[in-house]
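Human: Can I borrow your eye for a moment on a structure tokenisation matter? Separate attempts, laid side by side, tell us more than any discussion would. Could you pick a protein and write out its sequence and tokenised fold? No explanation is needed for now; the record alone will do.

Assistant:
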Amino acid sequence: MKIERTKNAIRNIIFGIILRIYQLLVPFLMRTAMIYFMGVRYLGLSGLFTSILSVLNLAELGVGSAMIFSMYKPIVDDDTKKICALMRLYKIYYRMIGLSIAAVGVILTPFIPRLISGDVPNDINIYILYLLNLSATVLSYWLFAYKNSILHAFQRTDIVSKVSIVTSSIQYFLQLAVLIFWRDYYLYVIVAFLSQALTNVLTAYHANKLYPQFKPIGKVEREEVKQINLRIKDLFTSRIGGVIYDSADTIVISAFLGLTTLAIYQNYFYILNAITGFITVILNACTAGIGNSIVAETKNKNYEDLNKFTFIICWISGFCATCLLCLYQPFMECWVGEELMLDLSAVICFTAYFFIRQINALLNLYKDASGMWHEDRFRPLAASLVNLFLNLILVQTIGIYGVILSTVLAIICVGGPWLLHNLFTVIFDRRYLLPYLKRLLINCVYVILSGALTYLICSLTDLPLMLTLLARGIICCIVPNVLFYFAYRKRKEFYESVILADKVTKGRFDLERMIR
């Protein structure tokens, strides 16, 4: 079966961006409604259970990616029989995962109250609430979850995005009605449970409609099952770190500092994550090209591309980090009020974490594009355990700042150096490592200087709150980008990036001529 790759890619990007914007704005409104109609502790409960279930979902990490990867060749060969056999194997794995999550989740039930410092809302039975959230997660695996594999393998994730938008809209509308008229948190969670079921059913319906020839029947050869299992094992250990990073932070804050502090922390983290999501769209768009270049080009060419993409990400994430530093506090004051804000020192920690996270994401992109999962399988796990260890120590001495700093330190001291060593051993030449680190350090210095100068200028504004937010926004759009331009304009990566942007825009702005 022929796949219209370019058409599908454009369609996926368009609906992916629409979904990303939707997932930024609407949940933001729902968080606001939760704070004002139910209270901040309910928001903290929601974040806690999301993190607990993310840890339980570790059972899935790697299965989906490995199974979809295994379908690529049968799709090219138009081997319907093998695709059907892989779907059956996928179905079996997801049933097993759902059962494992249910069993472990039930075993953990008696310990849930120990993960919460302080009191919970009076009208809440923490056990019932936890089991409702657990049921929704288990249902997501048992109810036609394997059908997703066909849509992803055939590059029809636009269908998944459309279904998500429709079902999420229904969910948020009903949940908003619950918050306004009934203010019943149990009913709020039940709506999410039913929405998950509707999402799975609609996704399965569209998969059957588009590809009716694929049914979960047949058997995969034993040798290939072994290869799939090895791939799952490598992916599991390579991706476990990200889940433990974020989930461990949330659980530690809840256990030591309480639901209110957790909700405040997650309000800040929500904004950070939303901006990260848009940068992720850019990174994901580069994955296929980077993977092709790693296979087809020389190590020297790939190293030059790494410098170019590092430059681009440093500029974009440096600009975003400056905006976070200068706009976080006035925005939070407008949104939730001074009583639900953190100190400036926490904002600095969040900003540093954001920037480091983007650089780490770029390096991980090269790892994934090259398929370097086996060589890198232990690093994310080790880094996440260091993060958890530091969390437990620092949260008891410097509170929430220790939780954020522990993540930054784990990346800088363990995850980052280890990943760079692996990349410059497997993909690039080792002699390029020190020059790359020097360039990266210079970029970081520029970002720090830009952030400090922009914040100093912004602090001179003395206007009403909304006008302060607007004025600082204008300053953040101008100052860091002007500074970056004068700092980078003579560098090779700057010229190459402009040429790349000119190609992406198909020469509409004639950017290459503008810099000559």
In short: The chain is about 80% helix and 0% strand. The mean pLDDT is 87. The longest helix spans residues 259-296.
